[in-house]
């Protein structure tokens, strides 16, 4: 892990990274455009909207995806507190840029 500048943190937030673990200093993002289909596949592949709504809404579904399914997780150490919480934050999929 390298030390992040304030500009790095802002850029990562713009890419959709949210705080998923205070204890371990982890942030994650939704890493694919079809994340909702991947998340709800086992539940109801033909009814993504209903499945997401049944999970408690879009914000909860995104939080679940970031914490469990995302393969794009970074260890940002102490700067984790500068990121928005994954709980209740709606970002959708955003393309990734180099930091």
Report on the structure:
The protein has 4 helices and 3 strands. The chain has helices spanning 6-14, 35-40, 48-54, 58-69; strands spanning 18-21, 26-28, 73-75. The protein has one domain (6-82). It is an alpha+beta fold and 99 residues long. It has a 3-stranded antiparallel beta sheet with strand order 1-2-3, covered by helices on one side. It starts with 5 loop residues before the first helix and ends in a 24-residue tail after the last strand. Helix content is 34%, strand content 10%. The chain is elongated and about 45 Å long.
Briefly characterize the structure.
This protein is of the alpha+beta class and about 100 residues long. It is about 35% helix and about 10% strand.
């Amino acid at each position: 892990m390298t030390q992040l500048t304030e500009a790095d943190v802002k850029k990562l937030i713009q890419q959709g990274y949210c705080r998923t673990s205070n204890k371990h200093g982890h942030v994650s993002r939704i890493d694919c455009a079809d994340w909702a289909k991947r998340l709800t596949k086992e539940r109801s592949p033909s009814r993504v909207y209903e499945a997401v709504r049944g999970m408690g809404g879009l914000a909860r579904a995104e939080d679940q995806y970031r914490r469990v399914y995302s393969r794009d997780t970074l260890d940002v150490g102490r700067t984790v507190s500068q990121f928005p919480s994954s709980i209740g934050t709606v970002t959708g999929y955003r393309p990734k840029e180099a930091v």
